[in-house]
Specification:
Ubiquitin-like (UB roll), binds FE2/S2 (inorganic) cluster, 2 domains, about 160 residues, five-stranded mixed sheet, DNA polymerase, domain 1, globular, alpha+beta
């Protein structure tokens, strides 16, 4: 069947079997391998993407269900010059990346949270990451990266709120 949707802000059209998952569609047909394949049962978050701005496990999404909708993968998250954006830079600067397997999902979980909550507490950040497993970092640096990004973005948009 023909599936039309917006992928990383561009309209796409792909002929695919009706029973394929969004994860398989992204990796096999679009070669967007930043979306990782791991548990395939919705437990690890490695396959996270944004669907109309909400974090979803693409291994649990039937590809035809994205018809007419907006899908953003990690390849769609970057600065204007195509390099890492502020959140991605903070992941690097805070030492939040070790093997890197979970990081696309973590970054997308962070972006999903920051799109609805500009000043999340550390607890709220941890809750937002609850569906994303990391075997390497212990999560503290990941939470640091998201918290630092939230504060920097808030200051950029509301510099009058600076406390120091
Ligand atoms: S591969 Fe989808 S949640 Fe683990
Ligand atoms: S950095 Fe290795 S699983 Fe998270």
């Amino acid at each position: 069947m023909l599936i039309n949707f917006n992928l990383n802000h561009k309209p796409v059209s792909v002929d695919a079997p009706a029973d394929i998952t969004l994860l398989a569609l992204l990796r096999d047909r679009f070669k967007l391998t930043g979306t990782k394949e791991a548990c395939e049962v919705g437990e690890c978050g490695a396959c996270s993407v944004l669907l109309d701005g909400e974090l979803v496990n693409s291994c649990l999404v039937a590809a035809p269900s994205v018809m007419g909708r907006n899908v953003v993968t990690i390849e769609g998250i970057h600065a204007e010059d195509g390099g890492p954006n502020d959140l991605q830079r903070n992941f690097i600067e805070k030492g939040a990346v070790q093997c890197g397997f979970c990081i696309p999902g973590m970054v997308l979980a962070g972006e999903a949270l920051l799109s609805i909550k500009s000043d999340p507490s550390r607890l709220e950040i941890r809750e937002a990451l609850a569906g994303n497993l990391c075997r390497c970092t212990g999560y503290m640096q990941i939470v640091d990266a998201i918290e630092t990004t939230a504060k920097a973005r808030a200051e950029k948009h509301h510099p009058e709120k600076r406390e120091d």
